[in-house]
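note to self: dont lose this again. the chain is below, predicted strucutre after it. 124 aa total, dont forget to put it in the shared folder this time
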Amino acid sequence: MKSYRLKNSIYLIFPAMVSTVIIFYMIFMYKKSFLWVNIVNIGFDVIILLYYLFKFCYKISRDKENIYFYTFLKNYKIPVKEYEGAIYTSIIIKINTMTKSFYILNVKKDRYIIKEILGDGSIK
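---
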């Protein structure tokens, strides 16, 4: 089984930033604005954070039949035949399957390791 695990510091940087924004907003701006503005701002930040925690992977594993995607809140098992391809950039990889899309934050040298695990023929 081939496996790749993202560094914790890279994976946790975005949730830390969003959580910091929420905390600073609650401390400094909560009393100075209207209730509906507070609900919209905090709600929007929570939706972004939940999307990140469900869609961004910190670990990928592959055996002959399945590809396993590990996110913070849920683990996904996708058959290899449902894998459609991946789009590689310097800081993020979007993995497309027939049913879902997943994202991985990475550094430039790690995208070749992920390419080898997923079995892509060429980098797009």
